[in-house]
Amino acid sequence: MKQQKNKPITLDEFSNISLYQMLPCGDGLALKKLKAIVHSVLHGQAIREANKPMSLLITGEVGKRTHAYAFLRALGIEHISHISANMLQLSKDVVEFFCDSSPDSGYLISNFNMLPASMHKKIYQVLEQGEHRSVDPYKVKVIATPVYGIIVCTAKNEKLVPQAIRNSFDYHCELRTYTEQQKQLLCLQKLKYSNIDIEDEGVLKTLLLNSTSDLNDLMKLLKLSVTVMMADGRNVLSSEDVRKGKELW
């Protein structure tokens, strides 16, 4: 394939993919469910409690953050506050994370299974009661601050989330494992979004042959292969780039 020199390569564009452009994983039920939730919310058909934020738990081995961001953007959320659950160590961390809350706020808490046990009650209050509580500076009274908007949390497995908290989510969506064909299509889509072409279909097969069954490893190899390609001043990925990328593992 002829090399194209003037086509900009933007490796970060894929992170902004639309929910309606995403490829389904496994049986595709997870993506259908997310779209159904979005449709019901946008058309006023979803049952939402006025005194608490809408909440969603996304579980699965891979793709959770991409699906979470796409879901929130599909609901018109422009500013998304994101934090890893292990960073919520103190009450003040929860207060700071949910500060300036509004109906248009979007929150993403990833690695929810890493949430410190001391914060379980705090997050439960946010999900179940729509507020977080803190003691005033003089330790005289408890201040309850309402939380609005939409909260999305992610974890590898729902069983890693305490049952009481798990039951507080309005929705739960489980991402299935990608098939081999879906992995190839995902690589191709990611490359297209990054303005990168492939030499032939053998490139996709070479990617799968040189990576483990883990999707994260496949994406790591893809990035390394693209790095090799870019170092040579090209934007057409070849099987040789993949093999050289594997050597950089």
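The above is record 1. Record 2 follows with the same two-line structure.
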Amino acid sequence: FDDSSLFIVAGCLLKRNSHLYPNVSTIDSIDMEKFSKLLQCYGYKPFSEDYSASTIDPRTYIWLRHFIEAHVQAKKSSGTVPDMNLPCTWIQSLDEAIKIENSDCGGHVTPLYTNNVEGSVCANVLYALAIAIRSANSLNWFDERLQKIFDDTSNMIAWLIESETVNKRPDVVLLYYPDVEVFYYFVARILKQLRSFDAETLSLFPALENARNRLDKAMRKATIMLFDLANCSDEEGIIFWDGVLGKGRDRLFITATCMNALLDAWTVKNLDGQFQFLPDAPEELQKYLKRASNFLCMHATSEKYSFNNAVFSASAKSIWSYPERYPCNTFKFTDGTDFDPDSMSYDQLMDSIDSTRQCVLGVTGFVSDQDYQTMLSNKQFGLEQAIEMHPYTKISYWSVEDATRSMIILALAKYRLCHG
């Protein structure tokens, strides 16, 4: 759903600038009704009786379980039935992945077969939906079921920030977009879109107003987090941020990203179309923005720092990143055979995998906190479980230098517009 969401965003932006690109397809050629149905079909539904829909990557469940548990308790208090649907990363069910694996026809399958929920991917889905709502000629596709997904997802993203889960376990929350600062930027730009909706649209779709209010509160906490993550420099009047690559290797990219996050979180367009800061913006905000802009202006062309970034990464970043290190209740091979993790070592598991069958690990359905604690105390395959985050030992990542250049230009342009 990540790539699909970004294509939708690109289509919307092309439509807004159709006078510059009259021959390019825009959002009008994107089937939002089909996208809506795919989100409803391939989302993660922990309370579903459908085994495939209720099974998720164990690396997802270890952090998402707290949000699910809170949902269950809230529904119990209100006397209603728990129900949840969150966007997954891959548009493929577990059953479909196994079927393709076992067929002679070939085809792409979800890595490790079991789908996952990733914080930044979910943010990109919300951003695509928000920007499409503003751009589409008809909103028939934004039905009650899709509004429920929007509401569930915005609540989950706000919870990630407010509970500090995204800071404590970025290794499992952000499987593919490893930088927390990038996640904050993705959330801030959703909030920017939601603030642009008129009162009529908000009244028609309460999920949009709920999301705006929740994310506004969450980004206030994220702002404090960004302030705390900033680094001062020996150079006077300079502030910068470093990402997962560290040692200044992604300093330009992350600093520009943080500037964009803060600007999107704390600015709006006035009636004259000019950007202005919200009246309740933190007092320290201007200091951080000014010093970050000083850094970018000084070093964007100084060649002291590279345009490198970890804009995207593989999910495995150490031995602690693999699913077998996380509690599961589904253990099966792709040929349909079940196996017992208590009577099999990790080496035996690896020896049992060959070209005819692979292993499938997951968490199926809702697992109460009490039962999950029991699962945490067990050693699957004789391995210690990844209860806490461990340092990354190796990151396989994609670096796009033009993304760094674009983020720098965007940050400095926004900053200038906010100051006349």
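The mean pLDDT is 93.
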